[in-house]
Specification:
elongated, mainly alpha, 123 residues, 5 helices, two-stranded antiparallel ribbon
Length: 123
């Protein structure tokens, strides 16, 4: 269900957080769908349960999942996940624009590139 890159510099809990957030934003998991328990998911992924617990805590903090004592964790719905994904995308875009500007790329070139990429996606 969730894939991890064990060679990545990104911590496992962040990879898990991003994976669940993305799945919720894309509608790959339904609202109120139960997530695997911390122990079960830790076993499936071959990681420490504390790692999964940390990811679940971050997801709950950001409103992407909610917990019911004695029942488990459930997906809240796509709204919070979509907002989170948009924030991440906009931050990356900001970083890319600043890096391009630092290299002397003109605003018009940046905008032309963004338009070309976006228009290419619509086809």
């Amino acid at each position: 269900m969730f894939t991890l890159d064990y060679k990545s510099r990104l911590p496992i809990y962040e990879q898990l957080y991003k994976s669940i957030t993305k799945m919720a934003a894309l509608g790959a998991v339904d609202k109120d769908e139960p997530l695997p328990s911390v122990r079960v998911l830790a076993q499936e992924l071959g990681v420490n349960p504390n790692t999964v617990q940390k990811a679940y805590q971050m997801l709950e903090r950001d409103g992407i999942i909610y917990s019911v004592p004695g029942k488990g964790s459930f997906v809240s719905g796509g709204e919070a996940a979509i907002l989170q994904q948009k924030e991440i995308a906009m931050k990356k875009l900001e970083e890319a624009v600043l890096a391009a500007a630092d290299c002397g790329v003109k605003a018009s070139e940046i905008l032309d590139t963004v338009h070309a990429i976006y228009n290419g996606m619509e086809e």
